[in-house]
Amino acid sequence: MNFKQVEAFRAVMMTRSMTTAAGLLHTSQPNVSRWIALLEKTLGFALFQRLGTRLIPTPEAEAFYADVERAFIGLESLNDSANSIRLRGKGLLRVGAVGMITQCVMPDAMRIFREKVSDIPVVVNTGGSDVVAKWVATGYCDIGFCSIHTDLPSLQYERINTAYGVGVVPKKHRLARKKVLKPSDFDGEDFISLPAGSFNRAAIDRHFVRDKRVLSIETPYATTICTMVAKGLGVSIVNPVVARAMRVPGVCEVGFSEKVELYSYAVTSENFPVGALARRMGDCVKEVFSGFNNALVDV
């Protein structure tokens, strides 16, 4: 597998056309077809099916494309980083974080950070815990914030928050009248889940031994789950930080009888010095988490 093959695959996924992809890459259509064929041989599975004049990606292609996009986003961010270094020297803070922290914690953390440091550019990258760990391990990010440990060597994890899952239901739903939800209360309810196989999904599902939920929707972001709950698409269990940060109209937060522990970590690398800016950002993130926890106690 080489870069040309992967670049051709990405172009075809974006355009759904070998010919249009060739135009984007400033090459010929036969070259694109050849690169795709070589990539399929290397991967060991088909990437596209032809339906008339249309190219339909296979499920394997869709899964592979997600990883390819993450890699290309990293490459594009490297160019932005180089531009910032040229313009401002080494005064740049690069942060990696999982979606929940990026969407619910980083805005307030950035506000606090800016009150103390107003003239330093900050680049915030979003990815899964495994991607954030790789960014930190390679020095691409100065500090990361994630929800699970990875097995990458040389990384140091500091647990900065522990939250316990809460139920989220539409305000007019029958479950909104309860003070605490038990697993059996979800019987027969459309349940919006995190992706199968994810750590937090497993932490929730283990409490539903005699599971009678209707698992109707899966999505990787708790913020999306809360929005879907507001639309009446189902109920769920999420990190209370998300429910409190979003305050989605029409959504009611209800305690859950079982202990669903949801962790957040700051991650740094032993191979790269942790600068003052990264430490300060870590303190800002901790301060925001602390504020959410105090708010939860008051409710």
From TrEMBL:
<dbReference type="GO" id="GO:0043565">
    <property type="term" value="F:sequence-specific DNA binding"/>
</dbReference>
<keyword id="KW-0804">Transcription</keyword>
<protein>
    <submittedName>
        <fullName>LysR family transcriptional regulator</fullName>
    </submittedName>
</protein>
<dbReference type="Pfam" id="PF03466">
    <property type="entry name" value="LysR_substrate"/>
</dbReference>
<dbReference type="InterPro" id="IPR036390">
    <property type="entry name" value="WH_DNA-bd_sf"/>
</dbReference>
<dbReference type="InterPro" id="IPR036388">
    <property type="entry name" value="WH-like_DNA-bd_sf"/>
</dbReference>
<keyword id="KW-0238">DNA-binding</keyword>
<dbReference type="GO" id="GO:0003700">
    <property type="term" value="F:DNA-binding transcription factor activity"/>
</dbReference>
<dbReference type="Pfam" id="PF00126">
    <property type="entry name" value="HTH_1"/>
</dbReference>
<dbReference type="InterPro" id="IPR000847">
    <property type="entry name" value="LysR_HTH_N"/>
</dbReference>
<dbReference type="GO" id="GO:0010628">
    <property type="term" value="P:positive regulation of gene expression"/>
</dbReference>
<dbReference type="InterPro" id="IPR005119">
    <property type="entry name" value="LysR_subst-bd"/>
</dbReference>
<keyword id="KW-0805">Transcription regulation</keyword>
<feature type="domain" description="HTH lysR-type">
    <location>
        <begin position="1"/>
        <end position="58"/>
    </location>
</feature>
<comment type="similarity">
    <text>Belongs to the LysR transcriptional regulatory family.</text>
</comment>
